[in-house]
Amino acid sequence: MRFEDLAGGTAVVTGAGSGIGESAARRATELGMNVVLADVSAHRAETVAAKLRADGHTALVIPTDVRDAAAVDALADAVYSEFGSVSVLLNNAGLESLGFTWEVPADEWRRVIDVNLLGVFHGIRSFVPRMGADPRRSHIVNTCSVGGIAITPRMTAYAASKHGVQALTECLYLECAEVYPQIGVSVFSPGQVATRIFEDVPVRDATTDDAGFWREQIREGMAPDDAARVLFDGIVRDDFWISSHPEQFERLASKRARTLNEKLRPDALFDGRN
């Protein structure tokens, strides 16, 4: 695929109201694409869309809670009714949680899993059959994280969900290669990107220090616009692994592989930085 091939196509981005999703939507319009901004916050999505429209781009807002399969079906219905096809689907919506596993409230744990993992599944279930019915090239990207290959204490709901997204995407790649070879599949595994993800973390007494630490760390991360450029570069190259921080990814993947291959205890290679 070439950048020119994306022009005139439609990109659907979940979690498009801020962070990587917002920047990915902007990058899609820079490449001449129509963009559909799906976010649980209609206000955030409309704010992003207004900026894109002011620059002369086509931006459709469809408030969507990716935890709800029917809502994602409705998103797909609306997109195909408006544009007729989808060139890029970015299953990007995600959120964080902090705290010792046994201290995380059950509803908070469920919300993280439902958004981060089931939200990706719902996007696949609603869009893949329609994308597969179109013989033209298209691409699906599931936003994972380096958290999909690492282990981090006090971040277990997030890690569990992202490990799930990683496995789901690998399986989807094989399935599309078998049934819908015109659909490219990628997993986007960013390291630290300066988003608001930790701003929305529920803070309890036990998580105050962790939340403050991660908020400071992430402010020093890559700019979301830079991450979005990496993302679309990977789509055009048809990469399966798209990483914003390749050195960090390789270090973490190597440690994880050694832990599994040598059946080491989880703390054997843990240094507090993943």
Automatic annotation (TrEMBL):
InterPro entries: NAD(P)-bd_dom_sf, SDR_fam. Keywords: NADP, Oxidoreductase. It comes from Rhodococcus gordoniae. Belongs to the short-chain dehydrogenases/reductases (SDR) family. The keyword Oxidoreductase applies. Coiled coil: none annotated. SUPFAM superfamilies: NAD(P)-binding Rossmann-fold domains. Gene3D superfamilies: NAD(P)-binding Rossmann-like Domain. GO terms for molecular function: oxidoreductase activity. This is Short chain dehydrogenase.
